[in-house]
Amino acid sequence: MTVRRRSRPSNGAASEAGRIAAHRNGRNSSNNARYQKWFIFGAVALALCGIYLYNAFKQTAARGRSITPFREQILDAGSTTPSRNSDLFWGAYRPGVYFGMKTRSNQSPVFGLLWLVQFDPNRVDFRHNCDQGLKLPRYGWISHDGVSFGYQEIVEKDFVLNVSFVKRPHLGIHGGDWTARVQVSPHPPSASAPTQVPSGQDSPEKQPATDSYLHVSLFFYTALDGQGEIESVLESDGRLSAVRGYSNELGYFDLKFEQGEGDLSYHFLEAYTPSLHLIKEAIQHYSSAVTMKNNHPKKGQRFAVLPGSRIDQIRQSASNPDLPLNLIVSQVSGTGAFSIEAAFESASHIIRKERLVGDVYSRELGDHLSQFHSRFEHTFRLREKGFSEEEVGFAEAVFSNLIGGMGYFYGASAIQTDQFEAPLAYWYTPLFTAVPSRSFFPRGFLWDEGFHQLSISRWNSSISLDVLAHWMDLMNAEGWIPREQILGSEALARVPREFIVQHTSNANPPSFLLTVDYMLDRDLIPDHFLRKLYPKLLQWVSWYNTTQTGPIATTFQWKGRNTSTALELNPKSLSSGLDDYPRASHPSPEEYHVDLRCWMALTAQVLTKVSEKVSLSDVTSLSNWRDTLTDFSLLKSLHWSNEHKHFTDIGTHSHHVTLVRPAVKKKHPQEPDPQMVRRVVESVSSVPVHVPHLGYVSLFPLMMRLMPPDCAELGLTLGHIRNPNTLWTPYGIRSLSKQDPLYMKRNTEHDPPYWRGQIWVNMNYMLLRALHHYSQMGGPHAHTAKQIYSELRNNLIQNIFRQYQVSGFVWENYNDLSGKGQGAHPFTGWTSLVLLLMAEDY
pLDDT tens for residues 538-562? Predict the structure, then answer.
């Protein structure tokens, strides 16, 4: 057998084979490197994608928690329906207008009043929104029980509008009936006789010739907010006698106008308004003018009248035949004294025995007024304490304007989170709340409302529980509550754009716990309500403990101060509620605030009380936390300054800063000056120090009653309070020491001082509450506390009353040098706490 052997290549062949092998090995090596690069690239891309997806998930989760309500709501969906709560279903729940009625529902029909003084070139504007710029001598509710009736005086320079309403809430299942009466009373009495302006274009034949000619037109409107239908009911002479309507919630209803006494003229309007906040503009737009003829005292002048139905023309001009009729207005005009009545009658007409008009209305209004005065004295006992009838009337008016200024709002807040640049929409939600000022702040503020309910809870604890539930149901899944509530078109129209968005890192003082504490001590909160409230309080506290903590244990910091601004003399702390009250000059993570720590001590005390009623398993941990936060030795070690002899914030601080205008060469003489900027005159501390400002913040350990009655620090603090060179004034305790470098200093060239010396009633109330406590505790400082309490209480009450007599209003704050009222007015928010000072009810 022949065996064939594989031949060996020659040298040339071997060289070529090596070249080919090397090429193959190189190609394989290159491929391997390429594969490794692609693998690394893919791994990096996958990792980046994972990180992106993880962050996106985190953002989505954070976004979801920010705009998701916390667990179950305290109020169920039917809690405000007429069948469940007819007492509070209807009300004057539009505090931003002089008079308006609506229900506590999402799309209630609304009713309201405008008026116009005819032939007066200085009063050509329709009165509708409460507006302190109009400079009315006085307006506000002077009797209002929060449920069944209200009586308001609106004072113009030459006449008074008496506006009242009475409800019959328990009439049937549709929310009951109500009637409103508006009376015009010239003051001083007009010399002119009642004179009619006809419904047509002709002017009257006989008119009195007089210089004291007063002619007033009242406009009572019905408007829809997205649901239902309305139509006019006209008499044979063209007078609007009623508005007939329907909605799913109310069924069929009528608003009937009772013909007034005297020589009156009547006009009406049927129109469309795109939004409730444009009602006044719509009425002004569609009104026409009649020129007075030669036989009229105001010949040649123009008289504003409503033109009748304009809805068809509006539909034609809008090229929308389906545009709804959603605004009907009745105009009644006359000279001298006259009145109108508008009676809302629900679908429960079968149950109605007598209509709530005329003498029946007068009788029921008189009964309500009598019951109100009697109940007010029984609740607050002011006559028993020696107050005069005029002082009691003042107290009734202040309280009535607080409870009568409650509003019902519906809408969605705009919020900002750290995870998203663009604002997010909160969920749509209702809010039943009092407001600080009907003219300037006709909306809800979180920390204001805790003070409002201190007074209202004494009068009607069920209203306070309802308000508390509405606010707590605004809490999101993280435990945050927006501090300012701007819900619905009417509220949005009154707020500058830059203040609308609320940031989820910003807090507000938990002042609601003052009301909860009061109601707990008097057993005014049912156990079933506490069981629903308790988880929300826990989550609220958890949010504070998570987001508002300071740099070391048991310290707290108000977030939201601007760390980069060069325009503010002292960057504001809006979250604290004290706005421009001076803090550390340079906000930093090392800062912590004594007022927030004291608020948290109150929170721990109240939460422990609640747990003792509804969750015994939590009592031990909460009481331990309470004991830590109320430990005075710990509080003293953190916030007491031995150098300054008072409690202080801690932070990075310069003692001397000022505002200066940069020296910039202008290109043109008309070019505006550059804005003033902050200049640090003295170097900033390298480590956190005691911030030396003496004022309201320094008094928080006293106001929250955290100081032992025998401690030396209490005596030193009382000394600061009574020192006229620092905090004491004849009108109340000023917010910042008169000796402070920032006392009454502007924070920017455009921002006047706000909490830098002015007297604020809510802080003075808390101080008097504490002084009353220490005056009864015994110890070396009890006598001094009692003396200061007595003098301060008298000063505060008398000045607020005196300013009310002079100006017709109570005010947002008071001047520390003159006692004069300042800021928004009427401010019957927390300034109404003067009632509790008069009653000595703490």
Answer: 999 999 999 999 999 999 999 999 9
